[in-house]
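Reopening this ticket.

The earlier resolution said the output was attached, but the attachment link was broken on my side. Pasting everything inline this time so it's all in one place.
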Amino acid sequence: MSMRVNTVRLPVYILTLTFMLLNALQGADAVKVTFWNIEWFPGQSLRNVTAEREREHMAVVQNRLAELQPDIFLACEIRDWKAFEELVKVVPGMRVHTVSSFRSRDTGTLWPQQLAIASKLEVRAAWSETWRPTMPGNPRGFAFAALESPCGSGLWLVYSLHLKSNRAANEEQSQINFLQRNERFVNSCSHIEEMESIVFSRRGHGG
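Inline output:
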């Protein structure tokens, strides 16, 4: 079973493949952050997935997550909240903060590859958001959470997103995917700037 997992220990901040920004980590103990593209979780396929296959995939991923024991867990290609909540049960103290509910642009049904954030930290706010309509046909979006710093130094702004799209049957579609990926990055940076301005504004007013 082929799976990719990236994990990192950070004393200051991290910018991961999902694009994640944490603020004001000075003085905090090491925080372990894991990002994982679990690939069609659970089941590792879009179609013809048996219950047995789902259980097998769940068990394999849970075993690995139990070994990693992250403090903050970012995941993509998650089917839904229920599956993600079941997954993180193997990490004591970890709670699900948000799981996106993006819909297929073709059928309108819930897309089986969602974004998710869980952690052991207190959460001030968490949600998912579709990309802003700055270009046509840009699917899905990002998941976001504002987490309380364990050292009391403020909020950490955490993002989980999936920039890549494999939906391309020719060179023209590949170019569109490339432009969409860049636009998603710009969208993400814009949202980070907005959230930071809110956080710093409240600090300035004693919030």
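Reporter confirms the inline version is readable. The beta strands are 6-10, 31-41, 72-78, 95-99, 114-119, 123-130, 141-148, 155-161. The helical segments are 51-68, 81-87, 171-204.
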